[in-house]
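Troubleshooting entry. Yesterday's outputs looked truncated, so today I'm pasting the complete records for two proteins to confirm everything comes through intact. If either block looks cut off, that's the bug. Protein one:
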Amino acid sequence: MTQNNILIRRYIIIGERRLSNYWWAIIIFLGSCGFLATGFCSYFGIDFSFFNLLNESQGASSTSLPFFPQGLLMSFYGSLGFLLSLYWSLLIFWNVGGGFNEFNKKEGFVRIFRWGYPGKNRKIDLSYSLKDIEAIRVLLKQGIDSQRTIYLRLKGKREIPLTGIGQPLTLKEIEKQASELANFLQVSLEA
């Protein structure tokens, strides 16, 4: 380990670019395309369905889906699904919530950086002196909506979360990261 690695620690926060978000954006997009195609085919009177094509090849007759109300609702749900998948894709592209936590003993500061939504406040960049840090606090809530978060407690009882939202860590990982950080910063660790 070099001297700089001992004096500077950086923890990467993933944000919206998680595999599960890519998965759901693609699945919702594909589902919405199916709903929209069904709604449009219903509006134009086209009998377009995989199951109907199979039935016709076996000699069975098929009936078209009436536009009102079924086709209209299919179009509405397809539009909502498309907009949701577009929104989700934009969140992934912008990497909302992604960033890093940097603890720099060499320069004597803590820097917490996150990407936000586009606009004048897109970059959230907080910087504090190491002298302002009182403790590292770990919050462990068990239950249906369990929460495991590491907080940086500053003078004046201000607490800043260090772990990303929707980034579940095991109990062992959170204890290890919190204790390493408290040892590195030479502050107390609170539960």
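Protein two, checking that the full record survives here as well:
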Amino acid sequence: MQSTFRYPDGSEYTGEWNSDGERHGFGQFLFSDQAKYRGQFEHGLFSGLGCITYPDGSKYDGELSQGRYNGLGVFIRCDGMKYEGQLQNGLICGLGLLTFADGSHGLPRNEGYFENNKLVRHEKCSDIIRKAIICAEKAKNQQPPQENRNT
């Protein structure tokens, strides 16, 4: 079932719900600070593919689990700095590439294995970067399910 609910703090959810009254399936959540999430929910939390846009212009497109960045994705800060790669428990963690706002990657190139948002080992990871970009595009292009209009 799809419907809209406005919360007391002014945030609003439009999308699918499960039989327990939890956000579940595809939906859009507009936070009271005007941050916006569009994508999959599981038992009330962001889970699966989704896109988050923050009031400062930062954005994330990719995989989420238990309400956090988790899996492959692309995060772009409001200043234009970009990370493409693996994330875990809401942090940059795994293989990826950091690109500065001017399009450079730093010297030496900020590509490799990250832990807790810091590059700890330089290595080529073009396959993971490519997969993260594809995942982000899938998140951006997903559409809500069509209601069955044959009654």
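Both blocks look complete. Sanity check on protein two: The helical segments are 126-141.
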